[in-house]
From TrEMBL:
GO CC, any one term: membrane
Species this chain originates from: Micromonospora arida
UniProt lineage: Bacteria, Bacillati, Actinomycetota, Actinomycetes, Micromonosporales
Molecular functions (GO terms): CDP-glycerol glycerophosphotransferase activity
Protein name: CDP-glycerol glycerophosphotransferase
Keywords, comma-separated and alphabetical: Membrane, Transferase, Transmembrane, Transmembrane helix
Gene3D superfamilies: 3.40.50.12580
Transmembrane segment boundaries: 20-44, 56-74, 80-102, 123-145, 151-171
Family matches, as InterPro entries: Glycerophosphate_synth, TagF_C
Amino acid sequence: MRGDLVRKLAARCLTTGLAVLAFVVLALTGATGWGLALAVAALAASAAEQRIRPGAELVAETALIAAAILVGYSRRLDEGLNLALVATGLVLLGLVLLVGPLRTAGGLEIRTANLPVRAWTPLIADRLGTALLGLLAALALAAALALPAGVALAASLLVGAGAGAVALDLARRRFRPRAGGGSVAAALRRHQPEFLLYFSAPPGSEYQVTMWLPYLERIGRPFLVVLREPEFLTPIAAATDAPVVYCPTLGAMDEALVPSLRAAFYVNHGAKNSHCVRFTQLTHIQLHHGDSDKAPSANPVSGIFDRIFVAGQAAIDRYARAGVQIPADKFVVVGRPQVESIEVRPEPARGLAHPTVLYTPTWTGHHADADYCSLPVAESLLRRLLERGATVILRAHPYTTQNPASARQLGRLTELLVADRARTGRQHVVGAAARELSLTECVNAADALVSDVSGVISDFLYSGKPYAVTDMGDEGDRFVERFPLAGSGYVLRRDMSNVDEVLTALLDTDPLAAERWATRRRYLGDFPAESYAEAFLSAARRELAPAEALTASTPA
C-alpha cells in the first residue's frame, strides 16, 4: 500500500512537472523543438498516470500542455495571429473542460458483457481522455512538421464532434429515459434469468466469483452476474457465458433486476450487498468464498440473508461460538462443491522419503485481528522442509502483494526455493507457475499442507491428508479453542520452536489421521464422493422452485 502511494505520487509529480516545464520552455524561450518534445513527454506521463490513477483529473496539466503546443505551433508557422489556431484553441479548451464530466457521466451508465446489447456511449466517454491526449500528440507532431493550421483545426473538430455526440446521448439517457428501462432491461427480459450472482469487492477479488460460476451454471437455469465495480466486467465475463452487468448506481440495479428473478446469491459480506438485499421479492442466499475459522466467517451481517449455505455443521457452530444468533432455519448444509475434484487418500502415507508439501500463507487482512499471515517467520520452516528432502509448492494468497512487507517476504522465500531447485533439481513450484495451478491441482499434487488460518485448510481436509496450522497469535492452548479445525492438524508456534516436532508428525507418524476423518464430516458434510456437488445443486434448485411447486412436492 505504501509502495502504491509512492507510485501514484511520483506519477503526479512527473506529469505536473513536465507540463509546467513544456509551457515555460515554449512560452518564454525560443527552443520550440525542445518545448514540443517536452510536451509529448508530458502527454506520455499523463497517459501513464491515468493507468496508475484511474479517473485522475488532469484538467490543469492538459490545459497547460495544449497551450504550450499551440504556442509552439504558432511559432513554427510564423504567421502572426492565425484564426485557425485560435479556433483550435477554443475547441481544445472545450474538450479539456468536458472530458472529466463526460467520463463521470458515462461511468454512471450500465454496462454489459455476454448480452446482445451495443452500448457505445459509456465506452467512448471512458476513452475521451485518451482520445484528447492522442489529439494533442498529433497536434504536437503537426506543429513540428509546420503543417497548415487547418489540419489542426480539422482534427480538433473531429474529436470535438465525437465528444458532442457522446454528451447529447448521455443527456438523452439522463433526462429522457425510455419507459420500461433501456436496451439492457429489454435484453434481460428476453433472457428471463431466474437468479443472479451479486458481487462487490476490492480489486483482485474476482476469484470469489469464478470459484462459484461452474456450479451456478450446473444448476441449469438462466442467470446473470451483477457487478458493482467496473474492473471486474472483463475478467468475469471471460469466465462465463452468462450475461454480466455492471451497475454503477441504484437506478442501474432497478433496470437489471427484471421480474423473472427469484433469488440472489452472494459470495462475501461487501457493504454494497445491502443495495441488492432491499429487493424483498428475492430470496437472498449467502454462499461465502471459502470455509474457515477466521473471524469474518462468523460475521453477524450474515443475518440479513434469507439463507446461509454452509459446508457443514462446523460452520453453524462457528456462529454460535462467536455469539452470533441466527435462526437455525436460515442455515442449509450443502458441502463445499469446489472440493469434488480433490483426490481422497483413504489411508495415511507415513515416512515419505521425498514428500511434496503445499505451503499456503494467507494475507495480513484489513485489520490486525484478522492478520494470520505467517510469511514473516516462514523462512525457517521452508529451510527445515528442504533439509527433509521436501518439494515445496508455494501458493500465496492473491492479496499478498497489497502489503509491501509481505511482497518482500514472499520474494525472499521464492528466491530460496528457486536456488534450491537449481542446486538439487527438486521441482519446487513458485511464482507464476503456482498461480497458474488451481487450488485443487495443488492439493492433488501434495502429500501434506502447511497453512495459516484460512479456507484452504477446509478444502485440503477433504483429501484426508495431514496438515499443519500456524499459530501466528501465539495463543497456545487457546488457539485450538478459537480455531477448532486446528485440533485435527499439527499446530506450529509463531517462533517455530516446535517445527521439527510438527514436521515429524506431519510427514512421518501422523497420529491424528483417524481424528481428521471425523473433522472432515463435521466441516464438509457427509455426502457421497461420487455426487458430492449435488447437495449444493439440489439446495439451489429448491430455492428457485415456485412456491406452488414446493407445496405440491411436500407429503401430506
